[in-house]
Each structure stands twice: as C-alpha cells, then as structure tokens.
Amino acid sequence: MSAKLHGGLQDVEIPPHGLKAILGIPDGAAGLVIFAHGSGSSRLSPRNMAVAEVLRESGFATLLLDLLLKGEELDRRNVFDITLLASRLVEAAQWARMTPELMHLPIGYFGASTGAGAALMASVRGPNIAAIVSRGGRPDLAGNALPRVSAPTLLIVGGADLPVIAYNRNAFAMLHCEKEIAIVPGAGHLFEETGALEEVMSLAVDWFERCLVTPLPDREFIFADRRDAGRQLGVALMKFKNQNPIVLALPRGGVPVGYEVAKALAAPLDVLLVRKIGAPGHPELGIGAVVDGANPQIVLNEDVVRLVGASENYIAAEAERQQRELERRRVTYRGGQKPLDLKGRVAIVVDDGIATGGTARAVLRALAQSDAARIVLAMPVAPRETIAALEKEADEIICLAMPEPFSSVGQHYRDFEQTSDEEVIALLAS
Q1: CATH 3.30.70.260 holds for 2-214
Q2: What is the DSSP string of 8-61?
Q3: Which of 54, 156, 261, 378 is the most buried (most CB within 10 A)?
Q4: Tens digit of pLDDT for each residue in 217-231?
Q5: Among 12-16, 37-41, 182-186, whose mean pLDDT is lowest?
Q6: If 0-12 CB within 10 Å is exposed, 13-18 middle and 19+ buried, where does residue 72 land?
Q7: CATH 3.40.50.2020 corresponds to the domain 226-429
C-alpha cells in the first residue's frame, strides 16, 4: 500500500506487520538510508525528517518508519526492546530488497537514541548493510552484537551530552569494523543548538557518500552470505506462509538458506538428499539419481541409459548402493529420523543457487510422484536459461536474481565459504 505525499514522498506500509513509513526516492539514487527512530519518536520526527531531506538532496533515497505499531508504543518495555526494534528494521531492509525501485540500492541505517542500538543489532541479523550512522545514539544497547558488526559505523555525539559520550566510547571499543566517532562541540542530546543539527547532516552525508555508494566492481555481490540470501528469499515466499508449507533444503549449501526461509514461513525444515547414479565404468557421468523422501524415487535419464547400455540389474544395484548412502547421511544430519510427510503440503525446494539445474530437475521429477499439493522451486540466484529449462518441472519457480553474464553461484555472494556438516546438523536441530 502506498500513497503520494507532498514533495514526491510516498506513504508506505512495510510487511508483514504493516509498519507505517515515508519513502522518498530522488532521481538516480545512489543508495537507501533507513531511519531508526529513538524512544518516544516516530517517522514524523522533525530532526530526522530534516536529515532525510538533506540526504535526498545529496542523492540518497530515504525511508523513515515507525518501528512500533499503534498501541505498542504505550508499553515502555517495547520502546527499549532492542531485539524487537532490530527485527522491525530487518523487515524494512528485506522489504527494500524485494521492492523493484529499491532492490539494486545499497542500504544504510541512520539510528537515533535507542534506534542506534537497534540499527547495529539489525545489521548483523538482516540483509547486507553497507553503512551505519548513529546520532546521539545508544550503540551500547546492541550488546553482544557489537563485535559482529561489519558495516562501517559513524557515532555522532553532542559534546555536552556527557553520559551518552561515555556509552558511545564503550561501544566504540567493542566495534571491530571500520569506525569513527565525531563529537559536535557544545551540542546536547537533541542537537537543538544553533548549527548542531547542520553539523550532523554534513557528517552523515559525508559518511554515506564515502561508505554507502558501492564501487562498481563490488556490484556483482548480491548477497552477503547464505543466511542473508535466505532472509531475502523468505520475504519473496511469504505468500505461502498460510498454505501449509514445508521447506526442503538441498545440503549442504541450501540448508542455511532453507533455515531462514523456514523461520520466515514458520514452516518445518527438512533436508532433501540426492545421490547420482553413475554410468558403468564412468561414475562421473550421471544416468539418473536417487532422491530421498518418505518414498525414495529413482529418476533416470533414459537417453543416457540407452547410450551407455546400463542394464536393469546394474541400475537396481547402483540405486540400492546410493540409497544406503542416503540413509547414512540422514543419520548424520537428522539422527535417522524419517523424512517428513509431504501429503497435501506446499513443498518448497530450496538451494543456495543453481547453475545447470541437473540436480534440481531430478528432485522435482521425484517430487512429482509424491502427494504434495504444490511444488515450488526457490533459490536466490540462477542463470535465466536454467530457470527457463526448469519451468515445466515445478508448479512455480521463485528466483531473486538472474544476472547476466552468469559464471557461478558463488560469484554473487560476498561470503561463500563451504557449509560444514556441523553447521547443517546445528541448523536442523534448532
């Protein structure tokens, strides 16, 4: 929902909670700054609105939003619930990542008072954040999240705001990212003194211009890591939340992605194990696959089977061997628990990305023999031609990005370290 306001601003609502926000997008925007207001404030804060106006004049889109719903702010515990406020900022960043006008823009946070602590915490829990500015903030309230903040962070404090200076210096010492602290001489907590807010504006613009505007060589990175990709994918799949979904992740790399999707949809998470059936004498050449499930399926490429002359006895023996390996892996990942029943459910197959689509095709064809009500294939990134080739294999395909040219899945992740068995086990157990 959106409506035009004076000055080209838009009144928008951020799902899933319907947070009220004001969005402004200047022509040729270089980035998006999301504002996190402090205690007792709102999207209509005159100080933050003034800062946002200057940022838009400097070429940045701005999003001022209420972190609490109507009525929530009446409970003072919510005002200081940094975890709750951070989760709302994450929702706003995820929404921006799925909004066509904003999805290509690097994101920064501008936090004031308690909103600064929420911004720092949100930066390690949500989509990749490129820069953070705190105005008269309480960054110390981010607690244990501070050492994990990677976004370049600027702390702005009034020179007369002595208690908050101490809080900021303590938080500054805990930050391991690129960081600076700026003291505005003579300014109080609200920067109401002559020229004080203007100094805040100048510092903020300089920081965002320095850190938020993504250099061209880095634009190939779409996702910070698999968890970031999963959070963004979860937003795109929210329409299935009330349709009895089950998330089936392809190990190992698909599990961190699937974990975040399952969390967003409040859905169960299971692994979908696949083992290739190799050709006689040439095990690297796949003639089919065995796909795990309540009723394991053998999917064959009949053209390749005929080409290599694989006999029925060979296929049966090889399929049995691969099935034993699937059972061993299920014991490793799930402690031997049986696969979850798909009957009548929306089965959402998730991976961290797809290149050629061979494994995905085998999985989808196997699931077509199940009792699932609907089969959805979901991934953060894949080549356009692969998606086109798989369209007939699933009821629906959700892919966040189809960049061209496409060379590899990992190219589009800033962190694409191999997922370990230990991480898979921990995510499934949680």
Answers
A1: no
A2: G-EEEEETTTTEEEEEE--TT---EEEEE--TT--TT-HHHHHHHHHHHHTT-E
A3: 261
A4: 444 557 888 999 999
A5: 37-41
A6: middle
A7: yes
